[in-house]
Write a structure and sequence with these properties.
There is one protein chain. By secondary structure, the protein is α/β, with parallel strands linked by helices. The chain folds into two domains: about 150 residues, Ribosomal protein L4/L1 (Ribosomal Protein L4, Chain: A), CATH 3.40.1370; about 40 residues, no CATH class. The chain is built from seven helices and six strands; from the N terminus they run ββαααβαβαβαβα. Strands 2-1-3-6-4-5 form a six-stranded mixed β-sheet. A hairpin with a 5-residue loop joins strand 1 and strand 2. Helix 2 crosses helix 3 and helix 4 packs across helix 5. The longest helix is centred in the middle third of the chain and has 17 residues. The chain is elongated. It starts with a strand and ends in a 7-residue tail after the last helix. The C terminus is likely disordered.
Length: about 210
């Protein structure tokens, strides 16, 4: 699959790039996509929710009323879950929501996500660029030039670039990520996937033959 290379002014250059069909042209596997997105979102959960049970609530253990003869329900101590201020029965406990997902399944999910974006013409390739100073205006101008101003875009860089990151930090519809940190959720969560030339080489290296990344 061949795509034109744009510059940050939005102009089409006289060069093209070929995207590897084994990464950007496979038949998407929706099940592994679902698994990988579920895996990512599960790992984002802190799992620190906690309520106090009966044995953890502070209060007297004196029996409130006699066992029989009151005409009401039997009452133990003031910490009963049935009383206001008592412990909570079957409340949430700290929990790890993560689960194991095989490397080959993760790789297939990312390839499937790339292929969906390619099929929907949602991938744009731009020249490598540098920003001398952090400037939000520069990032806004680039998005306008590429006609992506009103779309949620994911800009993929070959490595960390502080000036580019700081320039996009205040923009709600622009997210910066390195090629090595790409995951299925991030790929699918954007309207347009913007790849720099050098980031494509990193992606190809990640999914090199014999290694599933």
């Amino acid at each position: 699959m061949e795509l034109n290379i744009h510059n940050i002014k939005g102009e089409i250059t006289d060069r093209k790039v070929t995207l590897n069909d084994s990464i950007f042209g496979i038949e998407p596997n929706e099940h592994v996509i679902w698994l990988d997105v579920k895996h990512y979102r599960a790992n984002q959960r802190q799992g620190t929710h906690k309520t106090k049970q009966r044995n953890e609530v502070k209060g007297s253990t004196r029996k409130i009323i006699r066992q029989k003869g009151s005409g009401g329900a039997r009452r133990g101590d003031i910490k009963s879950p049935l009383l206001v201020g008592g412990g909570r029965a079957f409340g949430p406990k700290p929990k790890d929501y993560g689960f194991k997902l095989n490397k080959k399944e993760k790789a297939l999910a990312r390839k499937s996500a790339f292929s969906i974006k390619a099929k929907n013409d949602a991938i744009l390739v731009i020249e490598d660029f540098e920003l001398e100073t952090p400037k939000t205006k520069s990032m806004v101008e680039m998005a306008n030039n590429l006609k992506l101003a009103n779309k949620k875009l994911l800009l993929v860089l070959p490595n960390q670039n502080k000036n580019v990151y700081l320039s996009a930090r205040n923009l709600n519809n622009v997210e910066i990520i390195t090629a090595s940190d790409l995951n299925t959720y991030k790929i699918l969560d954007c309207a347009s996937l913007v790849l720099t030339e050098s980031s494509i080489a990193v992606i190809n290296e990640t999914f090199k033959v014999g290694g599933e990344g």
